[in-house]
Amino acid sequence: MAGTDVFRNSEFVREDVHRWLFEPWGGREIIGPKTEILAPGVAEARFTGGNLSLLGAGIGALLTPEKAPGILFLEDISEEVYRLDNLLIQLERAGRLAAAEGIVLGSWYECGESDEIRDLMHEYLGDRGIPVLWEQGFGHDPEALTVPLNVDGRLDASGDSPRLTVAGGHA
């Protein structure tokens, strides 16, 4: 990421990365400007996940924790909606979605119509009894937020305004 034009040309991205690298994390909230609640609830767990295509490709690999519990972050770039559908089926069959204690969806940059992707995600994830956030703002979008993985945090989608908070850590 640090070598991309986005990093060089976007003051917002540079400042966001700088904060994560050089300032304390504990209690920091991460909420994108367009974040919505797809399913209500609260979860406290480790942040896991990443790019949906890579997670799908890694299923069955020895070092892939397919059934690791946690708050699962998902995003992708340049995938057709039918491919996103197939990748969600893969994660479901591998037990990765069932293990999730909450799900945070990022950007779906160049993946098709936002409403169609949102409907697909709601179909797979909306009735699991866990909190789900839509369009958190991380991923491959040019103004993407930085989100740390493998840290503990809290996802609160119980009220009108969603909250995603990092539990602790320091640069």
UniProtKB/TrEMBL annotation:
Domain LD-carboxypeptidase C-terminal, chain residue ranges per copy: 45-154
Lineage: Bacteria, Bacillati, Actinomycetota, Actinomycetes, Micrococcales
InterPro entries for the chain: Carboxypeptidase_A_C_sf, Peptidase_S66C, S66_fam
Pfam families (UniProt xref): Peptidase_S66C
Keyword terms: Carboxypeptidase, Hydrolase, Protease, Serine protease
GO molecular function, one term: serine-type peptidase activity
UniProt GO BP: proteolysis
Protein name, UniProt field: LD-carboxypeptidase
Organism (species): Leucobacter viscericola
Family matches, as PANTHER family: MURAMOYLTETRAPEPTIDE CARBOXYPEPTIDASE, MUREIN TETRAPEPTIDE CARBOXYPEPTIDASE
Tagged with keyword Hydrolase: yes
